[in-house]
Amino acid sequence: MSEISTIEPAEVKRRLDNGERLNVIDVREDEEVAAGMIPGAKHIPLGQLPERHEEIERSAEIVLVCRSGNRSGRACDYLNSLGIAGLKNMTGGMLAWEKL
Question: Which helix (H) or strand (E) holds 31?
């Protein structure tokens, strides 16, 4: 298994603001996502990853997001165990994103 790297919410925002298309996967629950998501993110709740991980576009970088960074960290570990590369956990999650 490879080491999971992290990415700061400010870097995600800066890159999106610069027009970069990021592969962002939001692993929060439906009611959390209803309050708002990162533009362009794909919603796959953590509990559905085993059935839906094939929906994740394999790209050089896959940014995983949750509320605080814990569930997305678990999602990174799970996807890493499947041999998926390029995973990044967004530190601080949407709590940090909302403060930008």
Answer: helix 30-33
Instruction: Give the other-Cβ count within 10 Å of 74's Cβ.
Output: 15
pTM of the model: 0.96
DSSP string, 5-17: EEE-HHHHHHHHH
Length of the chain in residues, anyone? 100
Dump pLDDT digits (tens) for 23-70: 999 999 999 999 999 999 999 999 999 999 999 999 999 999 999 999
- Residue 9's CB is within 10 A of a number of other CB atoms, namely 22
15-50 burial: b if 16+ Cβ within 10 Å, else e: ebeeeeebbbbbbbbeebeeeebbeebbbbbbeebe
Catalytically active residues are: 66
HEC secondary structure over 57-96: CCCCCEEEECCCCHHHHHHHHHHHHCCCCCEEEECCHHHH
